């Protein structure tokens, strides 16, 4: 019998796991994808605006608290598109990609559980969330939740001597102190969708704070890009069914219906805000909505949405991840006299991230076509094309998929 080194490592890991009840105290490596861990890893480094370059770097020594992950895939986010076009966060040179997932191929002896306390072992599929370098006391169980704003995130880190800092790579180096979750029970497509879905789980949590969102609520979701479509899915998994989707693209509106919108309104077919408001009302059988989610980055869309909401209704604005300019509203008519409760939402908390794993399972279980959001798949060498596809607003979710 000819047992190779990897197989021995696997056996050792297995035996140790049995002895320790799941938490393997080992730094043996055993990539299930076959072959030993290479000495170097490739990254798609963005070296200037609109330009990725494949670069190769040595894989650093895995320390006692570190995890080396073989990347399986990563979504392209609107944030990546902004970075690619304008570098608003001044990160160049940078390895982008924060919606990534992969398999643990090596880990330090101190790594035993993930950020939720679930055992971690070689071969497990993981995602990363925030890195609280300066604030190690924040956990997902912290009720004084802090959203990701201000924390570091893999895929939005400036380059350093490790280089393997983003998911647009074939290996990523997860340092001690990072949050990491074991999501081995989700398939690759679902894992790629975790990060954008967490944005909506958070937005709906924010919306719930208004106490206006209920089972029978009439809800407008304005904007049917991936964010708006996932918003509809989250509402559906909560049992909210009276949803009207508003967008200017028939294809996206058709997808919104499949995702669970009861009715749709194409704003291109209605001239002026009064006509558009009437169309939204008609879509609800003659009523304004109780609650609205604004999921576009358009200031005009923010101004319009107040008109669709009844007196005493609520609004969650989540479309402006970056500065999209000023929007005009009339505080008297839009907010005060109608007594609208308005909440803003931005990214997510660690707790939302963990909630998202269950959301994805529920969405799939009730037959929502959530995985069909991934419409385009590219190789690492094709990241320029992937980002151009995103900028051209072709398809919905663009993803890098490792070979
Ligand atoms: Zn993202």
General description of the model:
- This protein has 403 residues and is an alpha/beta fold.
- It folds into two domains: 5-185 and 369-401, Medium-chain alcohol dehydrogenases, catalytic domain (Quinone Oxidoreductase, Chain A, domain 1, Alpha-Beta Complex); 200-344, 3-Layer(aba) Sandwich (Rossmann fold).
- It is built from ten helices and 17 strands.
- It has helices at residues 5-20, 78-86, 188-208, 226-237, 250-259, 273-283, 299-305, 331-336, 350-365, 383-391; strands at residues 40-48, 51-58, 67-76, 94-95, 99-107, 125-131, 152-153, 171-174, 178-182, 218-222, 242-247, 263-266, 289-294, 309-317, 341-344, 374-378, 397-401.
- The strands form three sheets. Strands 3, 5, 6, 7, 8, 9, 16 and 17 form an eight-stranded mixed β-sheet that branches. Strands 12-11-10-13-14-15 form a six-stranded parallel β-sheet, sandwiched between helices.
- Helix 7 (299-305) links the parallel strand 13 (289-294) and strand 14 (309-317).
- Helix 3 (188-208) crosses helix 4.
- The protein is elongated.
- The two termini are 30 Å apart.
- Zinc ion is lined by residues 77, 79, 98-99, 195-196.
What is the H level of CATH, i.e. the homologous superfamily of the largest domain?
Medium-chain alcohol dehydrogenases, catalytic domain
How would a crystallographer describe the biggest sheet?
8 strands, mixed
Number of strands: 17
Q: What is the radius of gyration computed over CA atoms, rounded to a whole number of angstroms?
A: 22 Å
- Number of separate structural domains: 2
Shape: elongated
N-to-C series of helices and strands: HEEEHEEEEEEHEHEHEHEHEHEHEHE
């Amino acid at each position: 019998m000819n047992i190779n080194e990897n197989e021995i490592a696997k056996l050792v890991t297995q035996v140790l796991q049995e002895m320790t009840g799941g938490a393997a105290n080992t730094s043996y490596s055993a990539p299930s994808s076959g072959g030993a861990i290479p000495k170097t890893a490739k990254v798609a480094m963005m070296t200037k605006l609109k330009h990725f370059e494949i670069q190769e770097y040595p894989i650093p020594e895995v320390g006692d608290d570190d995890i080396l992950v073989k990347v399986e895939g990563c979504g392209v986010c609107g944030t990546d598109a902004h970075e690619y076009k304008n570098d608003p966060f001044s990160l160049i040179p940078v390895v982008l990609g924060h919606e990534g997932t992969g398999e643990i191929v090596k880990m330090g002896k101190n790594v035993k559980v993930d950020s939720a306390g679930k055992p971690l072992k070689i071969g497990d599929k993981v995602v990363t969330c925030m890195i609280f370098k300066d604030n190690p006391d924040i956990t997902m169980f912290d009720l004084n939740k802090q959203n990701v704003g201000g924390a570091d995130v893999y895929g939005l880190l400036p380059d350093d001597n490790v280089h393997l800092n983003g998911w647009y790579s074939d290996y990523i180096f997860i340092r001690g102190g990072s949050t990491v979750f074991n999501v081995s029970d989700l398939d690759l497509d679902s894992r790629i969708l975790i990060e954008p879905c967490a944005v909506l789980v958070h937005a709906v949590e924010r919306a719930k704070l208004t106490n206006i969102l209920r089972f029978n609520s009439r809800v407008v979701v304005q904007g049917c890009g991936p964010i708006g479509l996932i918003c509809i899915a989250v509402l559906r998994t909560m049992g909210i069914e009276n949803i009207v989707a508003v967008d200017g693209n028939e294809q996206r509106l058709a997808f919104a219906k499949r995702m669970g919108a009861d009715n749709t309104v194409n704003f291109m077919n209605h001239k002026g805000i009064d006509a558009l408001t009437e169309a939204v009302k008609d879509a609800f059988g003659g009523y304004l909505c109780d609650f609205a989610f604004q999921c576009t980055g358009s200031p005009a869309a923010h101004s319009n949405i107040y008109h669709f909401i009844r007196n005493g209704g609520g609004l969650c604005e989540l479309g402006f991840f970056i500065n999209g300019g000023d929007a005009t509203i009339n505080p008297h008519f839009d907010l005060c006299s109608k007594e609208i409760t308005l909440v803003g939402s931005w990214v997510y908390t660690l707790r939302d991230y963990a909630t998202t794993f269950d959301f994805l399972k529920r969405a799939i279980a009730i037959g929502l076509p959530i995985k069909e959001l991934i419409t385009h798949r590219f190789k690492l060498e094709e990241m320029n094309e992937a980002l151009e596809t995103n900028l051209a607003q072709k398809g919905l979710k663009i993803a890098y998929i490792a070979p």
